[in-house]
Design a protein that fits this description.
heterodimer, A: mainly alpha, B: about 325 residues, mainly alpha, 2 domains
Chain lengths: ~300, ~325
């Protein structure tokens, strides 16, 4: 089944360097061939497409308050009922992922980039500085994420300008560790030594020798970070520290509808299903990606 | 061996000191201080000056850090900004409640995870594994507040078996937390179980494929004796570290869960202190949580070292 693609990461990196596009398609095909991967990719694609086109297809204005149809059940006019202000649940659920996808979609690549670069750099340089950095990373990781995020958000506000850099910063820290460990695995190899002997500078070695070999680990880590970030983002809006109303957001919608759960469960269930399906989709994709790239994810820590 | 253990303890201590520095520096960098929070609108001129002298805020940051850190060592975190109460007194019962919740979740989650993980690993890629693995992915990826909300909807609203929120006061005796504590325990245990069982599963699979397990099978040792005699003792060792990491996760996850269930624990106190801008309380809770985190990881690492003869001789260990 996988005879065309070399299985060891190093061998693959060699092939990828010659023809990066073919390698990408091969990995994608490998992901889709696994049932869980196919489901994951389908879920993520659906959510991204819906987030892009939802302003055009949402049947109602998400802000339209209607005091005559509060908390009505699903029916021909409002397919998924209305919330406590009479706003259409279907429209709000369709639009509710846009903010989350926008924020995490920008913050995830940023986190992987800065964390990956710092990790690779210090993995290559090593020595005292590297030891100090790792202790700092340990110290940062020992504080719960929500504390770090909340302190910054309460101080500087909840706008996108705060959320994106904050998420990117804190979620880049665990990436440092992954990138550094992956770098340590290759830094003693012959081809890196050869590059050193040829007199290449640090930057050249990082870009031409290390990056192609660490990239697989970073890709998988990035997919994981994306799902953790979504979780963090929606938890923050659930707690009232994320998106500000009336912007529709799944976390906020669940928090609002919780009080009316006993007689209007659809208000909770719609955003719950939307949010869960996106996060499950990302995780299935990440799992399949890890298997396709030959990296076992199950051993990785949950932090 | 002893040198290695000591080295590991030293690393843990360094981390705690670094964390305390980060917490202190982080709070220093925020605009406002305990006096502006306490005096609110009257925070200006002479009144502010007096308050700062009163609390020693006019001293250099370095001295204040030493003062704070040495106090924290003896369990004295000073006074809260709102209402000038003793922080260690405020924290006491909250810490007990969070530990109660966490230990109940562990007592349910860890045995369940071991059982399910071993089953999934032994029946790899067959129906028990597929069911367990799928459920595990769902349990560990769905945000805690979502699963908490769903559980409240099912078990409290629809079935009416257990209360959906905790109304007990922080200082109530432990017995009064039951049965309202069941749902929060369930949510925590679900996520923990999922994380741990995935490691147990892959570890069982790995050891089952190892040379010595194959060898035992080829020699004609009965299947279950291979499993219990050779595979499980080796496969369960990596679990210690994952349990530790899961406890570490739990310290953060408990914040959201305590808020959802209105549970009077440390996590909710942290959120309240942050929204009230009660920085001394936030500092104290952050330091307590980080210390527990480091302590748990330290214990797990030492337990692994003691249990695994191969690690005793290694000088550098991959993390």
């Amino acid at each position: 089944m996988r005879d065309a693609a070399p299985t060891s990461p190093v061998a693959r990196a060699v092939v990828l360097r010659k023809n990066p596009f073919a390698g990408f398609l091969g990995v994608l095909r490998d992901i889709i061939r696994r049932p869980s991967g196919a489901v994951g990719v389908a879920l993520v694609t659906t959510h991204v497409v819906l987030a892009l086109i939802s302003p055009m297809i949402a049947p109602f204005d998400y802000r339209a308050i209607n005091s005559f149809s509060m908390l009505t059940g699903p029916g021909p006019e409002h397919w998924l009922g209305t919330d406590h202000l009479g706003r259409d649940t279907l429209s709000r659920t369709l639009l509710g992922g846009r903010e989350a996808l926008l924020v995490t979609g920008i913050a995830t690549p940023l986190a992987v980039l800065w964390g990956g670069f710092v990790g690779i750099f210090f993995g290559l340089v090593g020595g005292r500085l590297d030891e100090v950095l790792m202790r700092l990373v340990d110290a940062f990781l020992s504080l719960p994420w929500i504390l770090k995020m909340l302190v910054l958000i309460v101080t500087f506000g909840t706008g996108l300008g705060v959320l994106i850099p904050t998420l990117a910063f804190f979620y880049g820290i665990p990436v440092i560790r992954i990138a550094r460990a992956a770098t340590h695995d290759v830094v003693a190899r012959d081809f890196v030594q050869a590059a050193r002997a040829r007199g290449h500078g640090r930057m050249t070695i990082i870009v031409r020798e290390l990056l192609p070999n660490v990239r697989d680990a970073l890709l998988v880590e990035g997919a994981m970070r994306w799902s953790w970030m979504l979780l963090a983002f929606s938890s923050l809006s659930f707690l009232g520290f994320g998106v500000s109303p009336p912007t529709p957001d799944w976390g906020l919608m669940i928090a609002d509808a919780r009080g009316f759960m006993s007689f209007a469960p659809w208000g909770v269930l719609a955003p719950v299903i939307a949010l869960s399906s996106l996060i499950i989709g990302i995780n299935l994709t990440a799992d399949a990606l890890a298997k396709a790239l030959g990296i076992d994810r199950a051993q990785k820590a949950p932090v | 061996m002893l040198a290695m253990l000591l080295r590991r303890v030293l690393l843990g201590l360094i981390t705690v000191v670094l964390v305390s520095l980060i917490i202190f520096a982080g709070v220093e960098m925020l605009p406002g201080d305990a006096c502006t929070a306490f005096l609110e609108r009257e925070a200006q001129g002479q009144l502010l000056e007096n308050c700062r002298i009163d609390l020693g805020l006019n001293q250099p940051a370095f001295l204040r850090y030493l003062d704070w850190a040495s106090g924290a060592l003896t369990g004295d975190f000073g006074l809260s900004a709102n209402g000038h109460k003793t922080i260690s007194e405020m924290v006491g019962y909250r810490l007990r409640n969070t530990l109660l919740l966490a230990s109940c979740a562990m007592l349910t989650g860890v045995p369940l995870a071991l059982f399910l993980g071993i089953v999934a690993g032994l029946w790899r890629d067959r129906s028990p594994d597929l069911v367990v693995s799928t459920l595990a992915i769902m349990a560990m990826t769905i945000p805690e507040f979502v699963s908490a909300t769903l559980l409240i909807l099912i078990f409290s609203v629809w079935l009416g078996w257990v209360p959906g929120i905790v109304l007990t006061s922080a200082s109530a005796p432990v017995s009064e937390f039951f049965p309202a504590i069941f749902l929060p325990i369930m949510v925590l245990a679900m996520v923990m179980t999922a994380h741990i069982l995935r490691t147990v599963r892959s570890s069982v699979i790995e050891v089952m494929a190892s040379d010595y397990a194959q060898m035992a099978t080829l020699k004609g040792v009965p299947y279950w004796r291979v499993v219990f005699g050779h595979v499980l003792p080796n496969a369960l060792l990596p679990t210690i570290n994952v349990v530790a990491l899961t406890i570490a996760w739990l310290l953060g996850g408990v914040v959201v869960i305590e808020t959802v269930f209105n549970y009077p624990g440390l996590g909710r106190m942290m959120i309240d202190s942050i929204s009230d801008r009660d920085l001394p309380v936030t500092q104290a809770i952050a330091l307590i949580i980080a210390t527990v985190y480091v302590g748990v990881n330290l214990t797990a690492d030492m337990a692994t070292m003691l249990a695994n003869p191969r690690l005793r001789t290694l000088h550098t260990r991959k993390r």
